[in-house]
Amino acid sequence: MPKPSDVRLLEVRSSTETISYRAPIKFGGRVVTEAVNFNVEIDVETRDGRRATGLGSMPLGNAWSWPSKLLASDQTLAAMLELSREMVAAAGKHRGQGDPLEITHELADQHAGLSAEVKKRLSLAEPIPRLAQLVCASPVEAAIHDGFGKALGQNSYNVLGKEFINADLANYLTPDFRGEFLDRYTLRQPKPRMPLYHLVGALDPLTDADVPKRLNDGLPETLPEWINDNGLTHLKIKLNGDDLAWDVNRVVSVEQVAAAAQKARGCTAWNYSVDFNERCENVEYVLAFVNQVRERSPAAFNRIQYIEQPTHRDLAAHPEARMHAAAKIKPVVIDESLVDLSSLLLAREMGYCGVALKACKGQSEALLMGAAAQKFGMFLCVQDLTCPGRSFLHSASISARIPTVAAIEGNSRQYCPVGNKGFDQKFPGMFRITDGTVETALLNGPGLGF
């Protein structure tokens, strides 16, 4: 039966902004120096006449979502911009009414066709990957969820039960979810505070000796400076995945530098995650890595909470890359591989025991995969796309509302703080870090919370 809360999309608008990085970030063998934010506004109206404007924003991270060997970075970025605009136009033509899960899934049915049109129009040498499609669609999804909550005068995470959602989770996941809705897998209030994962990129200086020339922009520049200034207790270490000696040395070096800084401030407990960005050739590399880290620095090994996406994102094409042996030692999570339910189920078969959710894959996708991971008893984390401003708050809201997520990754304050201007004044506890945590209690307003 139609619900009074069902919405229709009235008008969809978009804009872009280019944000320069204060320092480059390297991951997956690529160096990024700027981001293009794609911003979306959607006017919505409920069946009973309530109106609101939902907002969404996301950097088009083409270096991460489309690491092409055939196309240059400017070509993949141009294609993602074109596809993002096509998705905005498609949302503007949508004439159905329903809840956000219904509408975003109806729009998702058009992704493949729109992507094929852009490929043909731009004469691209390869198709637009599904992961890049999700990134392009994510600002639209965010705006729909945000507008839905605002129109109802409620937080978007509090309108996910059967009172507002027309079909149970079995309609989107598996029959195991029959009779269940997302309110079972989300919190009615955000967690008050959450630890922040600080990125230690492959190019980031650990000590003064690693700084060729200081930026002198008032922000920390070395790892001890960041630890002291932000009170950090969680560090995410980017690794190469194709140079075992370098990877092991990097973790051992981070441990040595961090241990001295933490001791000086009286901190005795902190954590690491390690991210290979799918560069490892096989699980044997991962096993050799963890064994050598354990031999050289037992303390560093003990601090590793999880290992992120060690091998190629295309799990189906690499059935030999099973993670059972590694997952017995540390949780191993998929990131780039996670694009839908089938990829999650395949990852479980291949030995992965955790998943990384991302706002840039879409709000509906994050909520559904978060529910599935909880049902299956998998380790859960939420990762960043160096999201500035509104997109970081969106990512943090997911972390704060999914029960089993323990920490938040947020890198924009390190690499592109200019993108946080205005938001850092309205939500200082989310951007000015002093005790290693972010004040997620602030994300409790109508819509997505901010």
Description:
- With 450 residues, the chain is α/β, with parallel strands linked by helices.
- The protein has 2 domains: 7-175, Enolase-like, domain 1 (2-Layer Sandwich), CATH 3.30.390; 194-442, TIM Barrel (Alpha-Beta Barrel), CATH 3.20.20.
- The protein has helices at 62-65, 73-93, 100-108, 111-121, 130-152, 223-230, 244-264, 283-296, 298-303, 324-327, 341-349, 363-375, 389-401, 412-415, 423-426, 428-431, and strands spanning 7-27, 30-46, 51-59, 194-200, 234-238, 271-275, 304-308, 332-334, 354-357, 379-382, 408-409, 437-438.
- Strands 4, 5, 6, 7, 8, 9, 10, 11 and 12 form a 9-stranded mixed sheet that branches. A 3-stranded antiparallel sheet has the order 1-2-3.
- The radius of gyration is 21 Å and the shape is globular.
- The model has no long low-confidence stretch (mean pLDDT 97).
What's the arrangement of secondary structure elements?
Blueprint: E1 7-27, E2 30-46, E3 51-59, H1 62-65, H2 73-93, H3 100-108, H4 111-121, H5 130-152, E4 194-200, H6 223-230, E5 234-238, H7 244-264, E6 271-275, H8 283-296, H9 298-303, E7 304-308, H10 324-327, E8 332-334, H11 341-349, E9 354-357, H12 363-375, E10 379-382, H13 389-401, E11 408-409, H14 412-415, H15 423-426, H16 428-431, E12 437-438
Parallel strand pairs: 4-5, 4-11, 5-6, 6-7, 7-8, 8-9, 9-10
Antiparallel strand pairs: 1-2, 2-3, 4-12
Helix pairs in contact: 2-4, 2-5, 3-5, 6-7, 7-8
